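Researcher: Let's do a round of design. I'm pasting the structure tokens now; please hold your answer until I've finished.
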């Protein structure tokens, strides 16, 4: 259903912005839905010429279909990127998104696993003495011990581990590279895993691999994370990103500087990191309520 101009835009997104495959597919799905809506509702087949009323109409239809405001805002962001691209290429002269506003969304605090639960998972839960068991524990240790994103873990290579300097080299969003310090215990776990990987005859350059020795993929990491988090927490959400939230929250609770956490997470601005301060404030409030005689 994509038009030629949309395909041109998607090629730009993939080649120039070097976004992840997940992001690329999300852009493609959003644009495909928008093009389909214009065709069905307006018999209009030129998304580059759509006006703000058509765009608002699509947003209303998404809202009426009970899509969450957060998801709708992501689609609005896709259109902003699309029309900005058209402006830069001088394909259009006016941006129809100027008159389109994002929808209000509730500020959800990051979901995280308690420190005691993570200690229980990594210190007391038994992992099988097999390649898969070693890999599964390493996945959890890496996500919680470095705060890296799911996509970053998948792209991590054997050569990105610096045993001498005790760091990991991570390629983040927009192709930005950052260095994350890790502890000796995690490095020892990586060494044991690499030895097991070699014994199995798995020569893939990527650190985390499937049983067949192929590069890992989101579904594999998500299943492993959910399986083991289910053993220690009753949280509804049990994803790799929850471990990233846990990493940041526990660092902050134990006195880490917010700017340092920003750099460790690979955030482009401090505002993205400040959401973790709300969890700390809630913790302080509970301590006050429990301890102060006038609370």
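Researcher: That's everything. Go ahead.
Model: Designed sequence:
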């Amino acid at each position: 259903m994509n038009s030629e101009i949309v395909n041109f835009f998607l090629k730009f997104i993939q080649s120039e912005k070097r976004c992840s495959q997940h992001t690329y597919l999300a852009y493609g799905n959003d644009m495909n839905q928008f093009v389909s809506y214009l065709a069905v509702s307006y018999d209009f087949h030129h998304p580059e010429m759509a006006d703000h009323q058509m765009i608002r109409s699509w947003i209303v239809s998404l809202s009426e279909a009970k899509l969450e405001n957060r998801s709708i805002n992501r689609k609005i962001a896709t259109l902003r990127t699309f029309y900005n691209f058209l402006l830069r290429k001088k394909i259009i002269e006016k941006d129809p998104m100027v008159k389109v506003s994002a929808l209000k969304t509730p500020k959800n605090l990051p979901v995280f696993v308690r420190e005691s639960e993570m200690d229980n998972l990594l210190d007391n839960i038994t992992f099988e003495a097999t390649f898969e068991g070693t890999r599964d524990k390493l996945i959890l240790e890496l996500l919680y011990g470095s705060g890296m994103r799911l996509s970053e873990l998948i792209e991590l290579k054997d050569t990105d581990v610096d045993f001498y300097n005790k760091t990991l080299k991570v390629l983040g969003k927009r192709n930005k590279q950052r260095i994350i310090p890790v502890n000796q215990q995690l490095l020892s776990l990586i060494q044991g895993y690499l030895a097991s990987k070699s014994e199995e005859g798995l020569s893939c350059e990527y650190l985390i691999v499937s049983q067949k020795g192929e590069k890992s993929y989101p579904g594999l990491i998500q299943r492993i994370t959910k399986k083991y988090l289910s053993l220690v927490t009753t949280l509804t959400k049990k994803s790799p990103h929850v471990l990233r939230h846990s990493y940041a929250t526990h660092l902050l609770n134990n006195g880490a500087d917010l700017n340092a956490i920003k750099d460790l997470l690979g955030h482009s601005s401090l505002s993205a990191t400040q959401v973790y301060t709300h969890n700390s404030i809630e913790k302080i409030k509970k301590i006050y309520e429990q301890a102060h005689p006038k609370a």
